[in-house]
Amino acid sequence: MPSSAPARTADKSMTRSRRKISANTEPPTVSDEQLVAFYRQMVLIRRFEERAARAYTEAKIGGYCHLNLGEEATVAGLMAALDDSDYVFTNYREHGYAIARGIGPERVMAELYGRADGVSRGWGGSMHMFDIASRFMGGYGIVGGQLPLATGAALAIDYRGGSEAVMCLMGDGTTNIGAFHECLNIAALWNLPIVYVVINNGLGMGTTVEQSSAEPELYKRASSYRMPSARVDGNDPVAVHEAAKAALAGARAGKPYLLEAVSGRLKGHSVVDPAKYRSKEEAEALKAADPIAAYAVRLHEQGLLTDELITEIDAAAAATVAAAAEFADASPHPEVSTLFDYTYATPVPNDSRRLPGDALFPAAPRPTVQQIGASA
Amino acid sequence: MPSSAPARTADKSMTRSRRKISANTEPPTVSDEQLVAFYRQMVLIRRFEERAARAYTEAKIGGYCHLNLGEEATVAGLMAALDDSDYVFTNYREHGYAIARGIGPERVMAELYGRADGVSRGWGGSMHMFDIASRFMGGYGIVGGQLPLATGAALAIDYRGGSEAVMCLMGDGTTNIGAFHECLNIAALWNLPIVYVVINNGLGMGTTVEQSSAEPELYKRASSYRMPSARVDGNDPVAVHEAAKAALAGARAGKPYLLEAVSGRLKGHSVVDPAKYRSKEEAEALKAADPIAAYAVRLHEQGLLTDELITEIDAAAAATVAAAAEFADASPHPEVSTLFDYTYATPVPNDSRRLPGDALFPAAPRPTVQQIGASA
Amino acid sequence: MSVITYRQALHDALRSEMLRDENVFLIGEEIGLFEGSYKITAGMLAEFGPKRVRDTPIAEEGFTGAAIGAAMLGLRPVVEIMTINFSLLALDQIVNHAAKIYGMFGGQAKVPMVIRTPGGGGQQLGATHSQNIELYYAFVPGMKVVAPSNPADAKALMLAAIRDDDPVLVLENLALYNTKGEVYDEDVPAEIGKAKITREGSDITVVAYSRMAAVALQVAEQLAESDGIDVEVVDLRSLRPLDRATIIASVQKTNCAVVLEDDWLTYGIGAEIAATISDGAFDWLDAPVRRVAMAEVPLPYAKPLETAALPSADDAITAIRQTLDAVARRR
Amino acid sequence: MSVITYRQALHDALRSEMLRDENVFLIGEEIGLFEGSYKITAGMLAEFGPKRVRDTPIAEEGFTGAAIGAAMLGLRPVVEIMTINFSLLALDQIVNHAAKIYGMFGGQAKVPMVIRTPGGGGQQLGATHSQNIELYYAFVPGMKVVAPSNPADAKALMLAAIRDDDPVLVLENLALYNTKGEVYDEDVPAEIGKAKITREGSDITVVAYSRMAAVALQVAEQLAESDGIDVEVVDLRSLRPLDRATIIASVQKTNCAVVLEDDWLTYGIGAEIAATISDGAFDWLDAPVRRVAMAEVPLPYAKPLETAALPSADDAITAIRQTLDAVARRR
Ligand SMILES: Cc1ncc(C[n+]2csc(CCOP(=O)(O)OP(=O)(O)O)c2C)c(N)n1
Ligand SMILES: Cc1ncc(C[n+]2csc(CCOP(=O)(O)OP(=O)(O)O)c2C)c(N)n1
Ligand SMILES: [Mg+2]
Ligand SMILES: [Mg+2]
């Protein structure tokens, strides 16, 4: 778990930039509708991920499957802060982000099922959701792999003088890989419109932030690039949303930003990980700090959430997820005949379309005696 | 050129560690002999590099050849701060360090000439000096390549509970590559006995520090790892020596350190680079700030250097370098018969010893009619 | 002899080398507290402690390079790279440093280290997590690369790799971890650089390594029963150095060959095997050397597509039968 | 047609594509103010400005990956990696990202980018700066790899690479930059995936690419004069896709072949060429396919050792003569 208590204010050492971009000290700018919408979003993601876990045990889903359980408030707050024209790059733990970005849950579930109607046509699976329409530029399975790509997307926006921004998500453990350093330096050096968001869930697989990062207050690493940064409570969708809005505003003005959102990972690293390395107490503490329960209480106190509404929202989420699973189950498997359709975008001669059992030279002809005579 | 004036004091933000390791505020601990020895060292390196440049134009030396011209004070100060049992890793700009570490100039020159008596037997050349006896663990040509290796050497020392330390040199441009981040994090996390030294000569080939590093005060990047650090005037051998001593003391106590030494690169990136990208003014300014001239004046004022002594030291250096060149010229070329001697340390069957013109199956026998009959 | 899994055999080899030589230590991501992504190092942290079972940050280049540096000072690190796909991030350290240091400095510094890493597709892990890129290491002078196909070799080759003074990449395989076989209880290191005839036969030579060498044996038994075809299986075991003599001797006996590999066909490991046979056994060969390999695509996630793209036992059988037909046509 | 250097041809192709399409931009280390380590981009910064000629920090993984991301948004970056040796630091971005993105996401995003980088030894740059590792890219589905051997191809293939919607690696060569040849003044892109018969001959086929394809032509002329041997030269030009048909057609005519390559022999590019010929032209081949390649060592700095380790025209001549002798023995 992160070393210091999450704060809603930006890093003190960043005053110059704070004046410019921090909205965190102003009164909440979020409407009541949005506050309830966050809750709906969070519940939907929770139910979706629970359903995905079940489908995995039913062998409907294969490969690796990483869930956003515990991260729902961060997902809702971040995605709501984006404009439609902005771009999102994530790691492999991205189902919730894809849904919150507006991709139909049924297409996300179909991708998990590896079906033709999946958001990546069944070619990507859990780790590789992509949807050009919503500018959701992909989940990536190589730790840190999305950082250079996202940085390059920001470079392209800057090259064209566009007003869009890029949001690049990563986990806490990812801040220790070389690409993190190379990319933040490049983004700061070139004033690129990008917000890097560290989803600090306290763990990279079984390794804590303290075991992996010599500076465990991860947002402070932005100082190596004179980049503004802040840490925010990832269990509070409003705080996340405001911090992200401020960060994006700065990014659009050519000031890339590093935002750290602190939340907890409720289950194992992936569906198959029992997380034995975690003590009973830790697990308990996490359950106690469940962002959805806490947020429900808060909205309740604010009079925005009634028991009826809670039931309604739960039922709606359950229905959506059930429909998504049905849709996925009904969707066809990709045709084997399409196996060679996506190796190259520009067709070229001599591209290999050989199946494993095929001979390289199928009907390798044999020379006639004449031929041999002629050539010898 | 670096953005802020070099300072002899450690970074203010590092007080916790300063109290422990900074010797910089105490009166100079350097003896008069040492002060003069620095000068001797600096002059020898200057003459050696000038001779190497000449030998290159005479085609006695091939490949790339990077010189320490302008860096002599840093070389002298750093190497004098090491114990014999310490380990040194450098980049490809290492002739001076090899000599200052105690390797005979004739063996360094012979390596440049690619001869059998070269410090790396002629296999390495200018970029790859190595001498196990003096624990000079190699010059490396891949930018940043030496950082993981040096970090691992420190890990080995720690593993064995030894009291040695590792000094890992790199250029300013090298602080932007991923390995820098991964290694400093690992060293700080594991409390390894290592001092990383950034030789800030203001340029990486033709690129200035400001063009390549979003935080141009490079020593400050240590804060991403809660690592103590400081910037020192690389033109002052005494300042470099004291800062290095302090850093090494901390490293031995398990506190890795980042030291930045600021000096200038008097010539091009390598012998063949005319450095057209540098203005006349810059070039002039560098000449004016020549560390050797300045240090000579200083010792003169302190009464440690007389004109006679200066002449004597110059003559001695010239003689040593001339002898080194003669030795190198007289040394034999490596025997072609040794080509396959250093591919593997542990011999194994079927290791390839084929020369380019050799057939893979030299006398590929042909089956007798019987054989074919038998097997068919 | 005991019957144990490939996983257990690797574990046992690591453990007894740790007990034998205190310079041997393990380093990598999640090998300690998490007990390894594939549990090869289960129990090691508890037994040997954090100094000898070193969990690292996610920094393949950094920790692999650190292992190289530690080896230069005489330690014998065994690096786990979680899967071979991630090794690309450490490739500069391995190819430009581990494999070069002994030669580049004229033989002054040895790099006695092992890199353990599994390859293998078929787990629906998608395009970036299912690759077989051992070629990247087998191609490099200064490296040694072994690829055990069974528990006995897994133990024997791991022992040899750890005791070798050069950088050795031990290619493991996700699909083999749970396979079982007889293994010596004693520590008997294998000889790096030697292939093995794992089944004698007279009709055709099948050359393979790692998972496909196991498939080759299964296919051989099947064809003996179904078609009465007597297949000789050459298990390469060592990709670098490559034991050409054993391969050629077999083909000079059978006069034809099929190569099975899990990587892509064009420029894959099998290309060298086929080229070697076609050269060294030129006058003995009665049909072209057939290669069975992966379809040349980024491996899709969807099961039907993944299955179609990966080489199977049936593909091997087809290739063997068609090759023997080709031989018959020419005799 | 004008006679210009290989360097100039590359420069001209880059410049006219920059003029033709504003989505094309250059990115890499020292390409602007320094005008490129090998001066291919000389004058570009002055003409096009820092936005389109982007100098980067020393961060191969970062800036190569950034180019991939920019390409995903429709730009057409041309990345210079100073030498192919340094590309290992960017390999994960190239192999696991650039080459995978189109397929892994079901064809939703294209990566129209070019990576320009020179290979080549013989400059006494030592073990880490003299490698020929184009294999690492030619092996990967999703990548396209071209390797021009002369100024005309350098221009034509660079034009084609920039206009292609897939990641294309253009293999340049240090030893070829100053070589001269006739080049079209107009922009005539070549077809990626096609080899070329650069010299017709009837006695033997020599297959090569990049620098060795130039050596092949020189050797062919020499042998025509000295021995009256009529060599046919196949210049691969494209390593991926590989034009097998052209190679096989030539060998079916000459009945024997020699492969020339600058990389290491075992598992090198030539292994696939030899395997391809031995398979596709099995019944036409009158002698084993001979490969001329680098000695399998970390390349030493000392000139005599370096020279001994690298393939030369004389080695090619030896291989050709000995192959024709082997043919004669068998006829
Ligand atoms: C380069 C690389 N190394 C290792 C892995 C294996 N791996 C997958 S996820 C993961 C942990 C990442 O932790 P973090 O960045 O905190 O993200 P989280 O999973 O907690 O969301 C690791 C080590 C990988 N996919 N890529
Ligand atoms: C990975 C890698 N990228 C690029 C190069 C080419 N190169 C050699 S030296 C150099 C500049 C290094 O600058 P700096 O770190 O400041 O060291 P300096 O040469 O100034 O001593 C570059 C880009 C290389 N050798 N390795
Ligand atoms: Mg995490
Ligand atoms: Mg510099």
Can you tell me about this structure?
The complex is a heterotetramer, with two copies of chain A (376 residues) and two copies of chain C (331 residues). Chain A is of the alpha/beta class. Helix content of chain A is 41%, strand content 10%. Chain A has 13 helices and eight strands. Chain A has helices at residues 15-21, 32-57, 72-80, 95-100, 105-112, 146-159, 178-189, 209-212, 237-252, 280-288, 291-301, 307-330, 369-375; strands at 87-91, 136-140, 166-171, 194-200, 203-204, 207-208, 229-233, 257-262. In chain A, helix 2 runs antiparallel to helix 11 (291-301) and helix 3 (72-80) packs parallel to helix 9 (237-252). Chain A is globular, with a radius of gyration of 24 Å. Chain A starts with 14 loop residues before the first helix and ends with a helix. Helix content of chain C is 39%, strand content 20%. Chain C has helices at 6-20, 44-48, 60-72, 91-98, 101-104, 135-138, 151-163, 210-227, 244-254, 269-280, 303-309, 313-330; strands at residues 2-5, 24-28, 53-55, 76-80, 114-119, 144-146, 168-173, 180-183, 196-199, 204-208, 231-235, 238-240, 257-264, 290-294. A seven-stranded mixed beta sheet of chain C has the order 3-2-4-5-7-6-12, sandwiched between helices. A five-stranded mixed beta sheet of chain C has the order 9-11-10-13-14, sandwiched between helices. In chain C, helix 8 links the parallel strand 10 and strand 11. Chains A and D meet through strand 2, helix 6, helix 7 and helix 13 of A and helix 3, helix 4, helix 5, helix 9 and helix 10 of D. The complex binds thiamine diphosphate (2 copies) and magnesium ion (MG) (2 copies). One magnesium ion binds at residues 171-173, 201, 203-204 of chain B.
